Amino acid sequence: MKPDHFLANIPVECIGTNGLGVKYAEFSCLHPKLSLSYLPFERFYDPVSTLTWMQDRPMIPVWACVAYVVLIFAGQAYMKSRPAWSWRRLLALWNLGLSLFSWVGAIRTAPQLYYNLTHYPLRNNLCDDPAALYGSGSTGLWVQLFILSKFPELFDTFFIVIHKKPLIFLHWYHHITVLLYCWHSYVTTSPSGLFFVVMNYCVHAVMYGYYFLMAVKCRPKWFNPIFVTVLQLSQMFIGVGVTIVAFYYYNHPVSGKTCHIRKENNVAAFLMYGSYFYLFAQFFVGRYYAVKVKGEKKMKTV
């Protein structure tokens, strides 16, 4: 199925063309009721100039990760002989900002994913050029913002260091690998990117919202933290499944059609999500199951 086929029944006024000459359907234009919530700069956004800028600078995420690791060690060394800072209010605002950003991102991208899955076969969603499916226009803007947001998210670790909280391997490993993978996926125009963007936006919307409530000490009793970890585990499980299906389509192309997947990117996604699932499962057992067992033993001793 050629990308132009997606535009067969699309009104002319809703068809845009990005800087690479690829035609796409502007999602906000297709849904008049939703379009009222879109700002002018979102509609028919052209991501190509930023995309090409990123493609010409592949070392930016690498150097960012190197600086990140160096600053972690430097920060921990600096704080070792000093009392922990108390920046709870700033931490609360930080988490609130990331939660609100993620909610908006989820609202902007999830409907596009639903539309694509209900209008086009799964193979097309995982194999066709993303510029025509979701990478341009208003959805393309929020996909691009998602990729770039992985840089400021590194500052999560700053609050852990200054408050002298334990910095677990899962935390910094997750930040580094997500940044590197997201950058590579975007500059190589990975078709499956929208699945990961929507899942991450949704999970982060809830996760950072939970962190905000914890920072201001207003977490409702019904908001069990196990819910956040279950969401994270579900995201990793689905991520592994998406990469497996994408790899199947890559190895079994339809006659006369190629799958727009980079093998190294898909393998990296499988390894990344697989390792995340293992680490989050380990965290889940250590935090919830092990604590429960410990509590039971203590009760028996008493």
Automatic annotation (TrEMBL):
One of its GO terms (biological process) is fatty acid biosynthetic process. It catalyses: an acyl-CoA + malonyl-CoA + H(+) = a 3-oxoacyl-CoA + CO2 + CoA. Its EC number is 2.3.1.-. It is an enzyme of class 2 (transferase). InterPro entries: ELO_CS, ELO_fam. It is found in: Membrane. It comes from the Eukaryota. Keywords: Fatty acid biosynthesis, Fatty acid metabolism, Lipid biosynthesis, Lipid metabolism, Membrane, Transferase, Transmembrane, Transmembrane helix. One of its GO terms (molecular function) is transferase activity. Its main location: membrane. This is Elongation of fatty acids protein. It comes from Cyclotella cryptica.
